[in-house]
Write a structure and sequence with these properties.
The chain is an alpha+beta fold. Helix content is 17%, strand content 23%. The protein has a 6-stranded antiparallel beta sheet. A two-stranded antiparallel ribbon has the order 1-2. Strand 1 (50-54) and strand 2 form a beta hairpin.
Length: 187
């Protein structure tokens, strides 16, 4: 009976959080809204300016516009500017945790989160909520900050406790990358 209640609560929580509709009004996200993609093989040019160049064309010297694309801003640095801190700076926790990567959180949102997970290139790959079992058993309503990033898939798993959230809890992981791209934080 208890397992059925816990499962039902997790499914309901997932349904609330995984709603991908955008609200009518929202604060500007600190990360780009485009889907996360693997970087191109060659480094992109440094600036994002439309340049007009005269093309070496035999029949005329008609100017052509070339659009140069700038890489997205460093998402980890943006998160730290917005009040997120490394979990490894707050408690005894590794700087890079296999499976989730570099984890940041706003200390005043503990234990629920959101925890932001980054790969070794400072790209946001996942948002994690840590839901204590006691809150589920007490049928507590939980509200977490939504994610402005698209969610590729969701993982839910039990954790008996760790530094920072030492009570038994469930990890609700909203992955912003594909299952294949999760490997970027496997080791």
């Amino acid at each position: 009976m208890r397992k059925a209640l816990v499962s039902a609560a997790l499914v309901a929580l997932l349904a609330l959080i995984a709603d991908v509709r955008r609200p009518a009004a929202q604060f500007a996200p600190f990360w780009p809204t485009a889907p996360q993609q693997l970087p191109p093989a060659a480094a992109p040019p440094a600036d994002n300016v439309e340049q007009t160049r005269t093309a070496p064309h035999r029949s005329s010297n008609v100017p052509r516009k070339h659009k140069v694309v700038r890489p997205p801003p460093n998402q980890l640095k943006l998160a730290t500017k917005n009040g997120y801190e490394r979990v490894s700076d707050l408690v005894n926790f590794p700087k890079f945790f296999p499976g989730l990567g570099i984890i940041l959180v706003k200390p005043d949102t503990l234990p629920l989160g959101p925890f932001l997970c980054f790969d070794r290139r400072d790209r946001l790959i996942a948002t994690v909520y840590m839901v204590p079992n006691k809150d589920i058993d007490d049928h507590k309503s939980l509200e977490g900050a939504g994610s402005a990033r698209p969610v590729d898939h969701v993982s839910i798993y039990f954790n008996p406790g760790h530094p920072g959230v030492d009570v038994p809890h469930y990890h609700l992981v909203l992955w912003h990358v594909t299952r294949k791209q999760e490997a970027r934080v496997a080791k």
